[in-house]
Amino acid sequence: MGTRLVDRGSRPLSLTEAGRYFCIEARQILESFEQATLGTREIGLGRRGWLGIGFTRSAMYSVLPPALKAFHRKFPDVELKLFEMLTEEQADALHEKRIHVGIGRQVQPIAGCTMLLLLREHVMIALPSDHPLASCKAVRMEELADSPLVLYPKHQSANFARFVESLYRDAGLTPYVAYQAYEIQTAIALVAAGLGITFVGESVARLGRSDVVYRPLLGAGLAQTTTLAASFRTEDDSIHLRAFLDSFGLQLPSPDETIRKTQ
User: Fold this and answer.
1) Would you state the pLDDT for residue 82?
2) What sequence ranges are listed for the domain LysR substrate-binding (predicted)?
3) What is the pLDDT of residue 83?
4) Which of helix, strand or coil describes residue 91?
């Protein structure tokens, strides 16, 4: 050390000022080491850490809440970082490791990622409560030809917007897009204001509101379904990620099987 830590001339022996300082610092280092060891062990066992989840708004109306509840019950000390984002924004977030998993609608394959189907549901049409078709039990696409459309999400590569456009195309129609909304709640609010109609998954329709009615599609539209899927990096072997995916009640492939499948 280059200095005396103990005063050997005193009886009983005592620490010098430098010795007292060293003793305090050494104890703090030992305590920090013990905490680091414990924390590392806890993280390794999956009891601590964080899990980043990117999700589209409609996932909160169906599959996400029960999965979050189940995961939190099992890992109460793991921090859940939730990021609401468009499906189309999740690929970059996964590649940049800002999230561990993305939950999106009409998901397209992402390079280096595995995709798991979480939900397949029928498409519903959202109408203002005073719309001429609101009294119908079901609606044909042809009956929507003259109704202005509120299209979402507003993104240059929005898969759900393309899906909606395909409904019109398959019926031999050209949609009149009156408004484009960034996300689903804005689109529904515009419908409630009487500014147009829009399309949603049936899980969204179950929520209901007094100024909007939801009706199933008839004819060719009856067979149309929309999906929610989880995407995650294939190489990610996080205990928390696997546990979260388990929370959806799916039969998951092992990490080795997942890697082989995506190679």
Assistant:
1) 97
2) 47-247
3) 97
4) helix
pTM, to two decimals: 0.75
Give the pLDDT of residue 259: 39
| CATH value at residue 239 | 3.40.190.10
Judgement on whether residues 127 and 217 belong to the same structural domain of the protein: yes
Based on the domain organization, do 113 and 135 belong to the same domain?
no
83 with 150, same domain: the answer is no
Helix (H) or strand (E) holding 200, with range, is strand 198-201
The CA-atom distances, in angstroms, between 129 and each of 44, 171, 183, 197 are 54, 24, 21, 11
Helix intervals (H) in 45-133:
64-74, 90-95
- Is 75 strand, coil or helix? coil
Q: Which stretches of 202-238 are DSSP H helices?
A: 202-205
- Is residue 258 domain-resident? yes
* Count: domains in the chain: 2
Spatial separation of the C-alpha atoms in residues 109 and 113, rounded to whole Å: 7
What are the residue ranges in the chain where pLDDT is below 50? 256-263
| 90 inside domain | yes
Same domain for 163 and 243?
no
| DSSP one-letter code for 253 | P
- Specify whether the CB–CB gap between 54 and 85 falls below 8 A: yes
Q: What is the pLDDT of residue 32?
A: 78
Boundaries of domain holding 54: 50-119+228-262
pLDDT tens profile 93-123: 999 999 999 999 999 999 999 999 999 999 9
